[in-house]
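Example with several molecule types.
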Amino acid sequence: MNAPILKLFGLFLVLFAALAAMTSYNSVINADAYRDNAKNVRPQIEEQRVRRGLIRARDGSVLARSQLESSGLYARRYTSDGALFAHAIGYDFLRVGRAGLERERNDALTGKRSELQSVFDELRGKRQVGDNVVTNLDPKAQKIAIDAMQGRKGSVVAIEPATGKVRVMVSVPSYDPNELDTQAGADAPLLNRATQSGYAPGSTFKVVTAAAALDSGKFTPESTVSGRSPVTISAVPLKNFANAQFGDITLTTALTNSVNTVWAQVAERLGNETMAKYMKRFGFLSDPPLDYPDSQMRPSGVYDLQKEEWIPPSSGRVDIGRVGIGQERLQVTPLQMATVAATVANDGVRMKPHLTDRIVDRDGRTVERIEPEEAARVMSTSNADKLTTMMSNVVREGTGVGAALQGIEVAGKTGTAELNIEKRINQPWFIGFAPLDKPKVAVAVTLENIQGAQSQGGAVAAPIAKLVLQELVK
Amino acid sequence: MTARNRELFALIPASLLVTAGFTAVFIQRNDLLSDLSLTYGLIFLCLCLAAHVVLRFTLPHADPYLFPLVAVLACFGLVMLYRLDEDFAREQAQWFVAGLIVFAATILALRKDHRVLERYRYSIALAGILLLLLPRLFAPVNGAYLSVDLGVITFQPAELAKIAIVIFLASYLRDTRQVLVVGARRIAGITFPPLKHLGPLLAVWGTAMVLLFVIQDLGSSLMFFGAFLALVYVATNRISFVLIGVGLFALGARVLYAIRPTIENRVDAWLHPFNDTLYQQQAGGSYQIAQSVFSQADGGLFGQGFGQATIQLGDNPPILPAAHTDAIYAVITNELGLLGACAVLLVYLLIIERGFKTAMLATDSFSKLLATGLTAVLALQVFVIVGGVTKLIPLTGVTLPFISYGGSSIVANFILLALLLLVSDRARREAQAR
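Resulting structure tokens for the full complex:
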């Protein structure tokens, strides 16, 4: 009977070899595929074992830190006034996932190094720790902005024009990232209105039209255009606000008084191609180059709600006259409009906006500094100067006086997108910057669905912009 | 060096291993070294020494490597369980003591001649079948009737039944093996056993099918039937009998697959572990098998190290279910890597090798068949659970012998070891006398 016993042993050798082969397949050969499997939560858990870096405001105050839990994992804790920074910073939790800067800067925050460096660190017994992220956010200005909103839905964005540093990013309503589980609400508090909401820009868009008019060489601030009302734009009559009549007026006057008929004619004369070219230069029509997750940003442009698609402004389907005054089907984000103001302020050069200032390791050494980076030259320096002068008139004597500061000149433009004319429901706007020479800050303010006689951009948005500018020009 | 001295020396590495293992877990846990690990190592060494003394006096000629190899697995199991949950390890240590007592008792009871078992073969067979049917009286666990919950302890009768059935088969086949071979007929190129003796064999096949049907567990049926076929093959040296058996089993399993949802679920979960519906299914879904392979993928070549596997977070439901029983091999791969897992497989292979060696040395047919059957059933158990966890075959819940948490498993496997050593002692003594 010994021969069959030997053969039986041989069979078991084969069976066990199959077990070893299968274990090799699972643990080594196919391991990467299993690790990438969407049902595998281990990689996420692994990241929670790392002490995640701090996120700091510009002044060094800690906005987010990690705390070791009894489960052996680190959990994120946000500053007690976490609602102040919730949208910019985002959150990082095992169960709900990751958003905002927490997501965009995850590699830095978890201290992810190159494969070789990790092996090296492991051999030296160094534990993986996350680097700290220092943001450009200004807690004081942030608080001033959110308080000034008084709970009204909308957004405030402030950018340093020369560098693109994002000083303020406010979206109302906000949420407490420490209590994320209870945040599902009808007002969509998780939505970052600064980057995710497409609003009708109203007359603030006239700054884009004016830039195109001057820089294309077809107009100067002194060019005169008839301001009578109504005029026919794309075969449909267009009226001025309150059907006000103006004679032949200069573009400067037309901007100061926000004369719709003038700017619609200017846009028509420039044509779809030119308008599209300058919109593109300002950063419209594509995701903003912010250090923020793509899934939480949207481009600005002309959007067809019925067909759910973007329409290129160069297309014949677009009424470019009405685009020129911020109507048509324009949808813009507050971040985009702040970028428009910042570009004019920065001598016509658009800088890439960035929330992160630098990445610092645990020992305080700067690992990476986000340097100012030019995104595009939109117009010449002299044209930017001319536009600045025009915009300063708006605040000195026009619709934007609400944003005027004592002793410091402010340039700006108001906007009032009429959402429901009968019920007088408006989307008020203000974009602007200060001071005029060497501007320190550019701002965009907008609020949703403001009703009543005093619901224009000059009355509602300009005073908020004033408070933020006042804080940031210091 | 005598066999017993060799055994004694071989126990030293086993004790060092348990000390090292506990030390590793302690270091990982507290970042400080406790002398408790030395205490555990010492207690373990004393227990093994006690068993060794029993062997020295009762079975001086028995195989010297079997016991130390089992001790390595048992101590490895203790360390793994300690790392998962101290309570598991404490209970397992108590079962380890109980197992050693039963081990000694078995040896003392049968040391004159283990062949007395043959006299009680029908009683033993009946006891085995009753044990298998016992869980039907209780609620099923994961859709299978494998364990009996007595409140204080959970008992898996199949563990003991497998030994009873091997004893019966070894005894029955010793009687009939000659006639099975002599009376065989060739029909259409296949050798069939004589009709007169086909009956009992068909009865065994029928029993396996009934078991599959009754306990609703493919893995243990495979284990029993596999052991039966191994014995038939060794007894008759007729591969055709085995093929007929395999064919019948496959046929039966196919029919049952179609009519029993539990088996169908198991197979579907094995074929499509990442299917959304199966993955989210509460009972009998593919969650466990999916997590098991993820856990292994986490291990890589060298593993994450003791205590580093992700098994459960806080009080939430475990990420890897049944980590201390069914899925312990996945945890081993996760923490010790492919190399650690292969080392464990190698230890089993060495035990199997010693088991078959014992069978080959034995002089009488019953002892040969008994040693073969016991070794085969142990090997098949390892194959069924490791194969299930690694997604080689559908996953079923049997324990990984000597490593998994479970009292009945430890006790039953120590009885199995005692029987192997009894056969070995007689065989080696006779071989020396020649």
